[in-house]
Amino acid sequence: MRVGPDPLTRQFSKILLVRLRQIGDVVFTTPAIRAIRRRFPNAHLTYIVEPPAAPVVVTNPHLDQVIVADHAMGIGQSWRDLALLRRLRKMRYDLAIDFHGGPRASLLTWLSGAQERIGYCVRGRSWMYTRSVARPRELRRRHSVENQWDLLATLGIPAPDRASYPVEMIVTESDAKGVGDRLARAGVASDRELVVVHVSAGNPFRRWPLERFVAVIAAIAREDPRRAVIVTSGPSEGDAAARVIADARAMLGPGKEHQVVSCGEFSLGELRALLDRASLYVGGDSGPLHIAATTHVPIVGLYGPTLPVRSAPWRDPSCVSESVEIEGLPCRPCDQRVCVPGDFRCLTWIGPDQVVAAAKRALG
Asked: I need a labelling partner for 186 at 20 to 30 A (CA). Which of 28, 43, 209, 335 fits?
C-alpha cells in the first residue's frame, strides 16, 4: 500500500468506480466521473451504486456500465454480493476507485481483483487498497466534491473548478413527458411560474418544522398570482406533504388555494425533469437539493447541522444559490447522532422570514 501524491501515469482500460448509499454523495461524484472520462477517454467505466441513488448515474453519458447492487441484510446480501463479485472478477478491472470507504464498498473494491485500488486511509480497511489517501476524521470546512476529488490526485488529475466540472444528472424523455402530463392534469398551465418546495429529509436532524414551510409557501404564492408552488416530499412522508399543502391553502384563503399544487410523489428522475421547468427550489440539505444542483434553477438551501461550505450546490458560479443558516453555533457542524443542546437550534432558529427573503433574492 502506498500513501502519498505520487501519481499513476499509466493508462487504464477498465475502471471500476464504487459509491454506495446516499443520493447526495452519488451526485457529488459526478464531476469526478467527467474528469476520469477526460483523463481516460478510451477506458470502459463501470459504476456500482445502490438502488435509491441509481437514477443519478444510469443516464450519465460518461459511463459505459452501471451496476445496481441491492442492499439487503444478513445472508441475503452475502449471496448477492458473492454473485456480484464473480461478475466483477470476470471484468478484469485494472483500476478501482472507492469513493465511499464503508465496509461493503471497500470489500467490493478489494475483491474486484483490480490491479490498482484507490481509497481512503480508514483504520482497519486501508490494506484493501494499493494506494490510500488521507481523510481526516473531523468534519472539514471543505466541499464534499473536493474531498472525493482527493482520490483523483493519484491519477494526475488537477483540482476541480465548478464551471468545468459541475454536478450532473441527465433527464430522460419519458420523465420529461411524464412530468408535463402530470402538471397538465393538475391544471398547471405552461406559462405558470413554478416554485418547488421540498418539505422532508431522510435524516431527522435536517427537517425544518412543517408549519414554517407553510408560512414560506403562502408568502411566495402571495407575491405573484401566476405562481404555482409544487410541494414535494420523500416516499415515506407523503402525509407530511399533504398536511403542508392543506395548511398553506387555508392560509392563502379562497380564490388562491389553487396556487399550491398537489401532484403526488415524484420519482428521482421525475423530480430532475420537474426542476428544469422551475423558477426556484426551496429545501433542506438532502438528496433533492443536490438533484436541483444539477440544473440551473435558483436554489434556497436550509442548512442545520451541515455547512454550506461542505454541501452547497456545486455548479457554475453564475447559477443562483442562497444558503440560509444560523452562524456562530459552537455545535455546528455535528455528526447528527445526538443534538447536544437538545432543541435542534441549528434548524429551529431559522425563521420563515429569513427563507422568504432568500427566495425573493433568488427569484430577483
From this structure: 209
Name residues whose C-beta falls within 8 Å of residue 159's C-beta, 6 or more positions apart in sequence.
Answer: 146, 149
Residue 109's domain comprises 2-155
Same domain, 80 and 212: no
Radius of gyration of the chain (CA): 21
Query: For residues 141 and 273, what is the distance between their CA atoms, to the nearest angstrom?
Result: 31
Rounded Cα gap, residues 144 and 110, in angstroms: 23
Domain shared by 150 and 253, yes or no: no
Is residue 229 one of the residues assigned to a domain?
yes
CATH number at residue 96: 3.40.50.2000
pLDDT tens-digit readout, 225-260: 999 999 999 887 888 899 999 999 999 999 999 999
Taken in order 221, 224, 228, 234, the sign of the CA dihedral is negative
φ/ψ of 279, rounded to 5, equals: -100, -10
Using one digit for the tens of pLDDT, what is the confidence trace for 56-114? 999 999 999 999 998 765 555 666 778 888 889 999 999 999 999 899 999 999 999 99
Structural domain count, the chain: 2
The pTM of the full predicted model, rounded to 2 decimals, is 0.93
Asked if 87 and 69 touch (Cβ cutoff 8 Å), the reply is no
